[in-house]
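Dear colleagues,

As part of the handover before I leave the project, I'm documenting each prediction I ran so the next person doesn't have to rerun anything. This entry is a single chain, and its sequence is reproduced below.
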Amino acid sequence: MSIRVLHFGKFAFERTGGIERHVEALARAQAAQGAEVTVLAYTLDANSKPRRVDGVQIEPVYVQARFSSQPLALGLMLRARQLAKQNPFDVVHQHWPDPFAHLVARFIAGRPNFVVSWHSDIVKQRFLGSIYRWLAPRFLRKPDAVIGATKTHTASPQIDIFADSAHRYVIPYGIDPAAFELTPGVTEQVNKLRAQYAGRPIVFALGRHVYYKGFDVLIHAMRRVPAVLILGGEGSLTSELKQLAERLSTESVGQVVFAGSIPDKELPVYYHACDMFCLPSVATTEAFGIVQTEAMLCSKPIVNTDLGTGVNDVAPHDLCALTVQPGDRDALADALNQIINSTDLARRLGAAGKVRALAHFNLERMAVETIALYEKLLRQ
């Protein structure tokens, strides 16, 4: 009999984002392993309907409002209870931080095992976060297991109120390498993209345009970097970032191009076309950086920041990345220029990154190890 799993997947299958892409990859891989997987996902589209994707049942729930960046979807509790009543779940897998889903999970019928993937600490919402951390262990059910993508994740003191060391597990995020292969079709598109910039070096950065991504720092750094920055993604700061790039354009030796939201199927083109990938994040909200592993699979050197999070476990300094202090525009520019000016350095970092990505961030292994944890909890 297959394990029945319910993921509270934030905006998985509805919008792009690091956690969302992880949930999608994990859910698909678990379904491929024979699990019966359902994903409850927030959506901003009131017309979004339930559907099956690669063996995964997607149940979108409309977000009526937000409270301090937390989506509030009142239908989430009703739909979760309906699904559990129809056919009880063996495991309810949450993806934190997501306090509202934690509350909803408390009221799911039956006695499923509760598993949490700890993606990052609550950082920005200091006041509300402290209230949640006080209330949750007193009134909400503690998880049976907490999964972190790196040892740094599971060492977070914020986990202490939810799980002791015996209930913490490290299972690295997995990426499907086949999705990032340099096929003839991708090569053709790479050549077209590079031709647009007349052979100039290309720096690629990707993510939601929000404060902790540090894209403003990167745009400032590009004033001293003779390259093209292709910035993918969108968000609440997109307009502000465009205005900044325009304001600095007259004094910049670099060029900033806004690529907008890039479909997943087109991402390999950008990764293979670039000369390096930059993750300029400035806050510990950036706890892993899945985009780093994707760039590493494409043999690209990384420039990242010393956040003391899983970001630096994924791409360590001088192994497959150059790491600088968060918010340091000049150091960021120096690191980018160092890679531009040294083909040997770029090649060494890129080659080591691909080896590391293939060895440590395997999609099938992630699914197998997660299901093995579920089975262990069920036996207990």
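The chain is about 40% helix and 20% strand. Residues 343-360 form the longest helix (18 residues).

All the best with the project,
I.
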